[in-house]
Amino acid sequence: MAHGNGIPCCPVLALLVMVTFSNVFLFGVMGDEYVSAVGDPGMKRDGLRLAIEAWNQCNEVGEEAPNMGSPRAADCFDVYKSTSQLEGENDCSFCSKFPHLLVHRVTEDDNRLGVGTPFPGGQKEVLQNVDLYAAQKELYLGYKCQVPDKPKPWQFWMIMLKSGNMDTYAAKCPKNGHKIGPYGPDNQFPCFGKGCMNQPLIYHNYTTLQGPKRTTLKGRFYGSWDLNADLSRGGDNVQNISYYSVTWEKELGTGSWIFHHVLRTSSKYPWLMLYFRSDATHGFSGGYHYSTRGMLKIIPESPNFKVRFTLNVIKGGGPGSQFYLMDMGSCWKNNGKPCDGDVTSDVTRYSEMILNPETPAWCKPDDPKLCPPYHTFPNGTRVHRSDKAHFPYDAYHLYCAPGNGNHLEEPNILCDPYSNPQPQEIMQLLPHPVWGYYGYPTRKGEGWIGDPRTWELDVGGLSHNLYFYQDPGTPPAKRKWTSIDLGTEIYKAPDQVAEWTVSNFDILVKLRK
């Protein structure tokens, strides 16, 4: 680990030694060998790599928040051990006071970069485009945080923020990838008026060594979508405003990072999202049509991967909180080919397991429009949604079809055409016995408030058997999941609070024999 590297105690501390290393962890699971797909298996690396991003309703920036810069920031550092400068010298007062030192790779100036300000590697043609600037800034932060590894380098875990507010009269969001003009009113989307799609305030407490022995690593991102919010005291006890906070903490040399999340909605911002993501290190990630940076040095592909993590839900966020035990995102066209950036033919595919026991099944035997056309059991048996005796209706909250599908089975409901830059297809699952084979909860309440658990989910096996639309006669898409995440989406419910912790996160892919 990086904290084993020595830095002379006195008098020079400015020299940064670049350290190259590789994390390779092999696991035996039921006779198969697995390797970690993430750069930081189990979140155990002292030298943290973490970033934060914020999106508007259609996964763009639209407009930067005042004095905040582009809504991308990072906290990336290495840990070095202080040593005496002279060989044989045992006394070093500085070393005894500060046995470990953190060297941050990303400065406050980097994090505050905003549209119009050039930076290394930034293309001149994007300097005045607020959306493209944010995408380029993410690549720049990734460059500063990147860790050499095999089979490829990686950059950071990603915290994702999103607001569901949408000003339909501002015409900022495309419809299924096509530009449209102003329209409205549309009660589907909350909006208090002009400016309702603003980006949040993002404040940052850089990671430092804390505690009586300076062995506790701790840092934080926090903020609000209410641009006049006074967060000078941190915001935890400020009422009647939107708020988010992610605090990370770890003991040097032992255990996992623990990421503590808080999300609060308000009357002005009733639809908010906060996710902890493991994204692709290059190419597109789920819901994002620009080149991305992330933690996935290997892209997991169905059916050959598992996801392991510890989750403790402290507050659920109310009945409108769609708390995702597991949310995975990918992108492929309706003909099965990989996405290429054409937002009119690319389709974002999501599968989400909702943990909140208050979430009902909207898939009904007498009204199947919100059910997938088929359910496939682990033994390969496939049943149609019209088979009332065998189709597990209560296992599905909803299924919605992509808006550019030309051969959709009737009846159907199309997915929201505005909340992604391209059409999307969404499969939302609920705890049910049919998912127990894959390690998922089998009844409502499992893993919820007061029931913290370490999960090992056969996400690859489950995602392999889920229904996703394809045009008839086309070869099956390779289901490669470029985003694996968890967190909550509080849906149009003001004054609700969700709180949870995540630790020990890992994605294990089966080695090919």
Automatic annotation (TrEMBL):
<keyword id="KW-0812">Transmembrane</keyword>
<feature type="transmembrane region" description="Helical">
    <location>
        <begin position="12"/>
        <end position="31"/>
    </location>
</feature>
<feature type="domain" description="DUF7705">
    <location>
        <begin position="35"/>
        <end position="509"/>
    </location>
</feature>
<protein>
    <submittedName>
        <fullName>OLC1v1022020C2</fullName>
    </submittedName>
</protein>
<keyword id="KW-0472">Membrane</keyword>
<keyword id="KW-1133">Transmembrane helix</keyword>
<dbReference type="Pfam" id="PF24804">
    <property type="entry name" value="DUF7705"/>
</dbReference>
<dbReference type="InterPro" id="IPR056122">
    <property type="entry name" value="DUF7705"/>
</dbReference>
